[in-house]
Amino acid sequence: MDAYRELAASYDRLTNDVDYRAVVDFYWQLLKRENLQPRTAVDLACGTGSVAVLLAQRGLQVTGVDMSPEMLCMATQKAENIENRPMFVCQELQKLHLPRGVDLAVCALDSMDYIINPEDCREAIRRVYKCLNPGGCFIFDVNTPEKLRAMDGQVFLDEDDDVYCVWRGEFDEATNICTYWMDLFQRQGSVWQRSYEEHREYAYSAAQLVGYLKDAGFTGIEVFADRKLTPPEAGEQRIYLKARKGRIK
């Protein structure tokens, strides 16, 4: 079953501890360091649109891109009452194509890790480069290999009054992929509906991603600890990467 098909309706409830405002605030710290004031942005793998809405509320013209129609349906509902409404498009990142360039591209919550074929990840980064205006900025985060390896054999539980989700992780050293098997129970009136999803993430190293960014043509590449303007330390669970597309001379 496709990831997020059944999870979409309950995703925000199960991730209500995610501080999206802090994520967007960190983007702004990086943009301030780069002396950038973007007017347009693309939110890659936008999910239910939380980051896209926050960017739009800061005055940007935003396009949200995701491969899940179900997640985009939730995003559209979330954005329907804001004045500067984002536009949402269903695309895979390795096939990314926008009708016009943007000043900023972001990809939050380790969504790049979901591209489990490294060549597809390389192509997605090339596509991001092409969709950026000269001088544009690309910011994204990934789970570190250390975090994904530590998921092996772990069992987790998320729940509220109407949703119950139990999932377990397994890391395969041969493929460098962490797989999450999720059993999801969602209340439907007086009964509970059970569904199952499989999620997989590739453990990209910082060096690997920096190489892909350089190959695509990006410059000004930096790697940061989780929402900190400092390099990652040993054992870091999440890192951010920032890169720029050069200006036309």
What's the SSE blueprint?
Layout: H1 11-14, H2 20-33, E1 40-44, H3 50-57, E2 61-66, H4 69-79, E3 87-90, E4 102-107, H5 118-131, E5 132-143, H6 145-150, E6 155-159, E7 163-172, E8 177-188, E9 191-202, H7 206-216, E10 219-224, E11 238-244
Parallel strand pairs: 1-2, 1-4, 2-3, 4-5
Antiparallel strand pairs: 5-11, 6-7, 7-8, 8-9, 10-11
Helix pairs in contact: 2-3, 5-7
Structural write-up:
The protein is α/β, with parallel strands linked by helices and 249 residues long. It has two domains: 8-143 and 205-244, Rossmann fold, CATH 3.40.50.150; 147-201, S-adenosyl-L-methionine-dependent methyltransferases (N-terminal domain of TfIIb, Single Sheet). The protein is 27% helix and 34% strand. The protein is built from seven helices and eleven strands. The chain has helices at 11-14, 20-33, 50-57, 69-79, 118-131, 145-150, 206-216, and strands at residues 40-44, 61-66, 87-90, 102-107, 132-143, 155-159, 163-172, 177-188, 191-202, 219-224, 238-244. The strands form two sheets. It has a seven-stranded mixed sheet with strand order 3-2-1-4-5-11-10, sandwiched between helices. A four-stranded antiparallel sheet has the order 6-7-8-9. The longest helix has 14 residues, at 20-33. The termini are far apart. 35% of the residues are buried. The model has no long low-confidence stretch (mean pLDDT 95).
